[in-house]
Structure formats: structure tokens, C-alpha cells
């Protein structure tokens, strides 16, 4: 199965090969403002990115949060530098996917504001966040 997502205007796109094991909700100062739900992988492996994007770098400037320059939707974050093995870590925003394609993905909560660690699962999935 291939999941896909796109920004509101359709210019920025991503694809995820398979179904993510979880969607991460983080409460750090950036993620809570973006309201993103992240699915992790590596660029050019299970995740492919396309379309125009601008990046916002913050903190240690190790991650770029990429958004569509036209409609402003946050599509993904991408490691600024590849790891020593040449792989580049990426996380796509599952909120850009079709709800029926991602609504059963389990939620994973991450405390990025305090302890910087995962929190116990509570049994919810993405559909529990749709309003």
C-alpha cells in the first residue's frame, strides 16, 4: 500500500510506502503550533517528497520544517544533514493524507516540551483527533 498526502493547493506532495506503525503527536513548541501528526522514515526509501517547499529551521538547526510556499501547509520535516550512512531522516505530516487512508493509524504521544521521551500509549488512533 502507498499512502499519499498533499497540501491544500496540491503543489507539495509526499508518499509513504506502506502504512506507518504510528503517527506521532509532539508537544514541543513547534509541533504543537503546527498541529502535525508525524510518520517517520527516510527520504528516497519509504518516503518520497515532491513539489516546491520552503523550510523553517529552529533550535540547533538540525531539522527543516518544510511548508508549501503558496498555501502554507506544513508537509514534512527533513534532517538538514544525512546520517553517516548517507540516509536522511524525514517525517511526513499525516494530516495531509486522506482521512480514510490514515484514520486507523495508532497515535504515539511524545513529550517534546519536557522529558523529551515517548509517553504511554492510550489506545487512540488518528480518527480520534478528527473534528
From TrEMBL:
CENP-V/GFA domain segment(s): 3-111
SUPFAM superfamilies, per database record: Mss4-like (SSF51316)
Superkingdom, natural source: Bacteria
Pfam families: GFA (PF04828)
Keyword annotations from UniProtKB, A to Z: Metal-binding, Zinc
Metal-binding keyword on record: yes
GO MF: carbon-sulfur lyase activity; metal ion binding
InterPro entries tied to this protein: CENP-V-like, CENP-V/GFA, Mss4-like_sf
Keyword Acyltransferase: no
Family per similarity comment: Belongs to the Gfa family.
Protein name, per record: CENP-V/GFA domain-containing protein
Gene source species: Limimaricola hongkongensis DSM 17492
Amino acid at each position: 500500500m502507498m499512502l499519499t498526502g498533499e497540501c491544500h493547493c496540491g503543489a507539495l506532495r509526499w508518499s509513504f510506502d506502506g502504512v506507518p506503525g504510528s503517527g506521532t503527536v509532539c508537544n514541543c513548541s513547534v509541533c504543537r503550533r503546527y498541529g502535525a501528526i508525524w510518520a517517520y522514515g527516510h527520504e528516497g526509501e519509504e518516503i518520497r517528497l515532491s513539489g516546491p517547499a520552503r523550510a523553517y529551521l529552529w533550535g540547533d538547526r538540525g531539522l527543516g520544517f518544510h511548508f508549501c510556499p503558496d498555501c502554507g501547509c506544513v508537509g514534512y520535516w527533513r534532517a538538514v544533514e544525512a546520517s553517516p550512512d548517507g540516509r536522511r531522516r524525514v517525517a511526513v505530516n499525516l494530516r495531509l493524507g486522506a482521512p480514510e487512508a490514515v484514520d486507523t493509524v495508532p497515535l504515539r504521544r511524545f513529550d517534546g516540551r519536557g522529558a523529551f521521551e515517548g509517553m504511554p500509549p492510550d489506545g487512540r488512533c488518528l480518527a480520534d483527533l478528527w473534528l
